[in-house]
Amino acid sequence: MLGGSSNVQSKWKRKSAVTLALTVLTSSQAILIVWSKRAGKYEYSVTTANFLVEALKCALSLAALTRTWRNEGVTEDNRLNTSLDEVSVYPIPAALYLVKNLLQYYIFAYVDAPGYQILKNFNIISTGVLYRIILKKQLSEIQWAAFILLCAGCTTAQLNSNSDQVLQTPVEGWLMAIVMAVLSGFAGVYTEAIIKKRPSRNINVQNFWLYVFGMAFNAIAIVVQDFDAVMNKGFFHGYSLVTVLMILNHALSGIAVSMVMKYADNIVKVYSTSVAMLLTAVLSVFLFGFHLSLAFFLGSTVVSVAIYLHSIGKLQR
Known about the structure:
single chain, 317 residues, mainly alpha, 77% helix, Nuc_sug_transpt, membrane, transmembrane
């Protein structure tokens, strides 16, 4: 009995730790991307940055596997050797993440960091719908209501009291945001289905193969999009300390996302991302002199209620 209680507590701590890590990493993501621009444009190749993110995630997964092999030995669940049937499912989410991650850079040509955070909330709806369609899991009415409340709360938190409009975003920005939301939602839910199809399989093995395909697709993107620039100026042309920090942030965020999928679910990831939007606003008070308005406090309250309703709805469904 005591062993069971200790196991539950251990799982709760692990779930909380990875969710908190994802929240902190996500809250700094948009800020680092914007800071990496010079004179309004990226002087580095975004495809090489994306490739390095995947390479770093792959290296981290392999390092974690090496530690596991040293402590537990090589087993059926943690060995890298795999079957074609198992590995053939990874190219789909890897390709989806490639397009989504590249769009993440280009959308900043149309929106600023706060606007980006608002548009990211399309992920909430797309993830909820795809969670129901792909994983065949019934979402309760309370959970659907929580989705709507969360969207309203996050939007309210970013309202500009000096304007009647929430965003001054051109059509291109909205279309890119919608495409990103669908790609992110589908890739996230699909990856969760893959990971949980074989729960005993070591997550670092699953991550390794996903990131290997991610590296391959990003290498193709470099050749197609930035081959001349890389050949003439070098792979690391235009890189700065902020660029390096951004790459580290993206890599660690990817690891945290996969851990959340393994020990929680993709909806937890979505809520973590939404809370990160509010955390970004708080950090902006100290970094950019952001004004904490009444709308922000009201939005924060609505988001808190939405998270509570989601947890209640999950228990009652």
